[in-house]
Design brief:
Layout lengths: L1 E4 L5 E4 L2 H19 L12 E6 L2 E6 L8 H11 L8 E6 L11 H8 L3 E6 L9 H8 L3 E4 L3 H7 L1 H9 L3 E9 L3 E3 L11 H13 L2 E5 H7 L15 E5 L12 E3 L3 H10 L4 E4 L3 H9 L5 E7 L9 E2 L15 E9 L2 E8 L15 E4 L3
Parallel strand pairs: 5-6, 6-7, 8-13, 8-14, 10-11, 10-13, 11-12, 16-18
Antiparallel strand pairs: 1-2, 3-4, 3-5, 9-15, 14-17, 16-17
This protein binds NADP nicotinamide-adenine-dinucleotide phosphate.
Length: 369
Amino acid sequence: MVHVETAEGDHRVQPTIAGTVNDEHYMARAVAAASSARTVTSPNPWVGAVLVAAGGTYQGATAPPGGPHAEVTALRLAAAAGDSAVGATLYSTLEPCAHHGRTPPCVDAIVAAGVARVVVGVLDPDPHVAGRGVGALEDAGVEVTVGVGAPEVSRQLAPYLKHRRTGRPWVVLKLAASLDGRTAAPDGSSRWITGPAARRDVHRLRAESDAVLVGAGTVRADDPELTAREVAAERQPVRVVLGSAPAGAKVQPALELSGDLGGVLDHLGSLGVVQLLVEGGAGVAHDLHAAGLVDRYVLYLAPAFFGGSDGAPLFRGPGAPTVGDLWRGQVVSVRQLGEDLRVEVAPAGEDRGTGSAAPATDLEAEDLP
Ligand SMILES: NC(=O)c1ccc[n+]([C@@H]2O[C@H](COP(=O)([O-])OP(=O)(O)OC[C@H]3O[C@@H](n4cnc5c(N)ncnc54)[C@H](OP(=O)(O)O)[C@@H]3O)[C@@H](O)[C@H]2O)c1
C-alpha cells in the first residue's frame, strides 16, 4: 500500500505499486492531453482526462467555455466507439466539477456512465468545487484517488490554481535585454534587441495570456500593438495600459488602469484574467518586482552589449541597497531561441510542486540556424 501526499495536503491510499505505476502513466497522458487546451479554455482550467475502459482508452481535453469538459469528452468518445465505461477508471488532471456552470456537473456523467474509479491530479480550489466533486463521487460509491502526478499537474495549472486561490492573475513579467541588461538605447529605441525566434515566443506567451499589460511610458516610446500575431491564436488578449494611452495608439482599444498595483491585479482577476503578461517598461517592471507581485520572470537575452550605463535598465527605480538584500530566484528553464537566450526564473522558495529544492533546468537549443 502506498500513501500519497497531495498538493492539497490530503492523503489517500493507492492499492499497489503496479497500480501506482499505471496511474502515473495514464495521468501523464492526461497532462499531455490538457496541454492541447492551454490557450482555449480560460477562464476555465485546461484539463485533460483519460478513460481506461474494457475496450480501449479514450482521452479528452477541456473545450472552449460552454463546451464539454475533458472527462465528458473522454466518456463520449468511449460511447461513440461502442465501449462501455462500466467498471472503468477515469484519470483527470483536476477534480471533476460537481456544480451546474455553463455545462452540467461532470460527476453526474461519471456516475451515470458506471465508472468504478476516478484518479485525480489535484483538487480544484474553485469555491464551487473545492472537494465537492470528490465527495459526490465517493458518496455515489466511486473509488477516488487524489494526488497522482500532482507536481506536474500543479505546474501545468499554476495560473488557474493561483487565480482561484487568490482572485489574482498569474503574473508573467517579460523583458528583452542585451546581455549587459539594457532594455532600450539612450534615445529610447528598443526595436529590436532580440531576434525573430524570441519575438515569436513572445507572441506565443501573448496567445496563452488573457491580458497583456504595459506602462504608459512604453506606449509613448514604442506604440506597441500587443497582439498575438506570429502564432495561430484562438483569441487575442485584452490589452491593458497602466496610466493612459492616446486615442490613436495602436494598443487601443485598451483597458486603462491606474493606482495601487495589488488593486489592479484584483480588478483584472475579477474580470477573469487568469494569466497576465507584463511587457514592461522598466518603471512598471520595477514596481511589480519591488512589490513581490511577479510569479515568473521571462528574460530574452541577446548576445549583444550596449556597452555603457546610459541605456534603459531592466528595472527603473531603487534596487537592493546592499548585496545581502539581493533578490534571488530559481531557474525554471534556459533555452536558446535563434541567437538569443530565454531564461525563465521563479521567486526563490516558491513551491513549484516539484517536491524538491532542485530547479528543473532544461538546457536545450531551439531554432538553431
Ligand atoms: N526591452 C524591452 O523588453 C522593453 C519592453 C517595454 C519597454 N521597453 C522600453 O522601456 C522604455 C519605457 O519604460 P518606462 O520605464 O519609461 O515606462 P513604463 O514602465 O512603460 O511606464 C511608466 C509609466 O506608466 C504609468 N504608470 C505606471 N504605473 C502606474 C500606476 N500604478 N498607475 C498609473 N499609471 C502608472 C506612468 O505614466 P505617466 O508617466 O503617464 O504618469 C509611468 O510613468 C521605452 O524606452 C521602451 O522602449 C523595453
